[in-house]
Amino acid sequence: MFITKEQLQQYTGKITEDTDIMQDVYCSAACDIVEDYLGYAPESKEYTEVLDGTGSNQLALSAKPVTDVKSVLINGKAMDATTFTAQDRYLYRNDGYSFPVGRRNIVVKHTAGNKTVPGIIIMTALRIAGLLQTEGSGNIGITSKTFGDEGSRTFYKTKFDDYLVPLERYRIYEAA
To answer: Are 42 and 120 spatial neighbours (Cβ–Cβ below 8 Å)?
Structure first.
């Protein structure tokens, strides 16, 4: 989880008792929503991936940015990790060879993600957690607007799509 209850309290101004676990639940749910949208966890963590060889010198990994390649096995053979470079979410082979075509024949151990999660990702998760908290108070995403003497309108918004749009450049798209 890359946001905390304390951050949510500071963001919303709603301070609750330490025994109130719901703010932790809102933070966890918001992080899950953001991670599902991005296609990966934005904070730095270690991965072991088993991939299909492509016949090219490039493989797409499941998270970004890749910050360290620890080991690569090709058809069960350990390779020199210094012959590979990573950029964004891609692993490149620099020794003049390709990743041989095969099913689940490449094993890559690497670190990916951000040591410091970008502010826009944190803000988006806090916004969503704040909405979840508001819904938890029985408001179910209600926004209201008063139009002077003409009355008011009430809008219901529980879709998070508009809040996720600023994260578009961080997102990983998978081919359908």
So the answer is: no
By the 8 A CB rule, do 167 and 138 touch? no
- How far are the Cα atoms of 2, 130, 149 from residue 154, in angstroms, in the given order? 33, 19, 15
Q: What is the pLDDT of residues 84-140, one digit of tens each?
A: 999 999 999 999 999 999 999 999 999 999 999 999 999 999 999 998 988 766 655
CA distances, 24 to each of 6, 19, 53, 77, 133 (Å): 9, 10, 41, 44, 10
Dist CA 77 CA 71 (whole Å): 11
Q: How many CA atoms lie within 13 A of 109 on its CB side?
A: 7
- Residue 73's SS3 state is strand
